[in-house]
């Protein structure tokens, strides 16, 4: 059984630390990147940081995760820090009601199951309906751009070179993407939209997911309880 749950970062410091260490280890081992904007630890005690974590049933082993970071004028979104020096227009597109799904990763143990390619991306978009979000941003590697498109993101061609940047290194390409219709998801794949709507209506459920390596059972708990947005201070 794999568990996918969401929570405010300050509510579970131990899980945040497991998430952070797993993400950092993955960046260093597979990509040779010691530091990346979404790999900062500043979010751990931040009220407007929502964590999605993939664990075993005992909640002691972490298989992956992602973050939804809400713009609040206190902690910059990773996309601002990452590409702001290349294209300052990104700052104008981030305002109250903006958020970013970032730091998405999965461990080698679950590679090929679809955790990073479908479960986490879908869960992030599911959460958008519970939060005060008008537009949802993501900075994708080439391999994850198609995943973003499937769940409703479109390339933000107003930024960079028609949405692309050399980031985090000169031989890596990143693509800025955005959802401007977080409720209707007009650009999402119809089948994916149906799955997202089902999870939005049933935030706590157990279902069978099918990935490249076969099917597996997932226990979802995507309900954010007692969330109070800290108002923008810009």
Report on the structure:
This protein has helices at 13-31, 78-83, 89-93, 115-128, 142-150, 190-201, and strands spanning 2-8, 49-55, 62-70, 98-106, 135-140, 154-155, 164-166, 173-179, 204-211, 214-221. The protein is globular and about 45 Å long. It is α+β, with helices and mostly antiparallel strands and 234 residues long. Helix content is 28%, strand content 28%. Strands 1, 2, 3, 4, 5, 6, 7, 8, 9 and 10 form a 10-stranded mixed sheet that branches. The N and C termini lie far apart (43 Å). The mean pLDDT is 90. It is built from 6 helices and 10 strands, in the order E-H-E-E-H-H-E-H-E-H-E-E-E-H-E-E. The longest helix has 19 residues, at 13-31. Helix 4 (115-128) packs across helix 6 (190-201). Helix 4 links the parallel strand 4 (98-106) and strand 5 (135-140). The chain has a domain at 2-138 and 200-221: Gcn5-related N-acetyltransferase (GNAT) (Aminopeptidase, 3-Layer(aba) Sandwich). This is N-acetyltransferase domain-containing protein.
Structure summarized in a few sentences:
The chain contains 6 helices and 10 strands; from the N terminus they run βαββααβαβαβββαββ. With 234 residues, the protein is an alpha+beta fold.
Task: Just give the CATH class of the domain at 2-138 and 200-221.
Answer: Alpha Beta
Structural class: alpha+beta
Terminus-to-terminus distance: 43 Å
Order of helices and strands: EHEEHHEHEHEEEHEE
Catalogue the unreliable spans. Answer: none
Find the CATH topology of the domain at 2-138 and 200-221. Answer: Aminopeptidase
Compute the CA-based radius of gyration.
16 Å
**Which word captures the global form?**
globular
Q: What's the architecture of the domain at 2-138 and 200-221, going by CATH?
A: 3-Layer(aba) Sandwich
Give the percentage of residues in beta strands. 25-35%
Helix content: 25-40%
Largest sheet: 10 strands, mixed
CATH homologous superfamily title of the domain at 2-138 and 200-221? Gcn5-related N-acetyltransferase (GNAT)
Quaternary structure of the protein:
single chain
* Total beta-strand segments: 10
